[in-house]
Amino acid sequence: AGTKTRRVLAFVRVKPTSHFAQDMIKLGSDNKSIDIYIRKSPRGGIVNNTQTDWSFKLDGLLHNASQEMVYEAVAKDLVSKALQGYNGTIMCYGQTGAGKTYTMTGAASEYRNRGIIPRAIQQIFKSAAEFLNILVTVRISYLEIYNETLFDLLAPALGRGCKDNQLTVMDGPQGVYVKGLSIHPVSHEEEALHLLFEGETNRVIGEHSLNKNSSRSHCIFTMFIECRSRDYTNHKCLKSKITLIDLAGSERLSKTGSEGQVRIEASYINKSLTFLEQLVIALADPKREHIPFRQSKLTHVLKDSLGGNCNTVLVTNIYGEAEHLEETLSSLRFATRMNWVTAEPVPNKPFYREVGTGGPGGGAILLYYN
Ligand code: ADP
Ligand code: MG
């Protein structure tokens, strides 16, 4: 099977509302197109622009979609491809409150409310249990980027404040990694879920201790997967990773005249999302040679997780109410740009472990620790 170029998949999820602006937002019956109509108000309109109609066509609209339906549409195939050696990335983008964290993590209260991460964990361990001859190992890390500083959500004491343990983004021979970020081997579903919820708790604690809101930071949950034969004479290994990203709220706070800490946060977020947007534009342009990965921590960390050889999916979370139409428009524009990015997914090359400890496999994994 040869490689084929495909686009990054872009989905739009509409947050349920009883005040859906049906005269302004028209969802196509193909479940892919979305049209926006803005009637000019006497005061000059919400958008200071002569254009009043926009049409977007994406890979799918998730409207009144359950968590299970979202998982089926967005993640299921990407996760099974990861078990065949393909790297996969899923990213949630949108303004605060639009449903990014609900989509990515969901609510722990009831199973049906669980989001993409716990469902992906379940799928991996379920598949692993079904493989007769293949041993699957899973390792997890959970990184937060707040005001251009990296925090380890699974080792908060190490990640926060202490100079000696500053986390840094590094370009290694195996790709980009975060030096100092803890990586945790997990052997069953419950163990992985436990780490996810521990990380979520550290996000919440952070909100109080640093007076920040989790919507002001980017959170990246990564699963490093390794498949090898159960036959101990066969040393072939296949590695892949799944990167699941809950981005900071995309609303542009600068114009609301916020002050102090909030203003600093807003400018960091605006910058990192603007750099992400510039990166996406560069990635979508086949003539561009320079791809600006190093402009922010977020884009640097995501260097080999967007497009390229990965399966990449974007979920843009939007509100359906009239009052959020301006942010909805800008989110849909981002989704369209992302949709232009092409990728050529290819499975990672298998490598061979040496007998005993160490060897190229062991070394590659240690890279993530150091
Ligand atoms: P964000 O992370 O984008 O700031 P959240 O995911 O925290 O937004 O969502 C804000 C609130 O709306 C939460 O209470 C969440 O449970 C709820 N919510 C978001 N999307 C949905 C949905 N599709 N169905 C039900 N509740 C939702
Ligand atoms: Mg959130």
Overall CATH architecture: 3-Layer(aba) Sandwich
Please give the largest β-sheet. 10 strands, mixed
Helix/strand structural class:
alpha+beta
Question: Which hetero ligands occur in this complex?
Answer: adenosine-5'-diphosphate, magnesium ion
The count of strands amounts to 17
What does this molecule look like?
This protein has 370 residues and is an alpha+beta fold. It has one domain (6-352): Kinesin motor domain (Kinesin, 3-Layer(aba) Sandwich). Helices cover 32% and strands 26% of the residues. The protein has helices at 67-74, 76-82, 100-104, 116-130, 156-159, 189-209, 260-284, 297-301, 325-340, 359-369; strands at 6-7, 9-14, 25-27, 33-37, 53-57, 60-63, 88-94, 134-146, 149-152, 168-172, 175-179, 184-186, 218-229, 236-246, 311-318, 342-343, 351-352. The strands form four sheets. Strands 2, 6, 7, 8, 9, 12, 13, 14, 15 and 17 form a ten-stranded mixed sheet that branches. Strands 3-4-5 form a three-stranded antiparallel sheet, covered by helices on one side. A two-stranded antiparallel ribbon has the order 1-16. A hairpin with a 2-residue loop joins strand 10 and strand 11 (175-179). Helix 4 (116-130) packs antiparallel against helix 6 (189-209) and helix 7 runs parallel beside helix 9. The radius of gyration is 21 Å and the shape is globular. It starts with 5 loop residues before the first strand and ends with a helix. The structure holds adenosine-5'-diphosphate and magnesium ion (MG). Magnesium ion binds at residues 100-101, 214-215, 246.
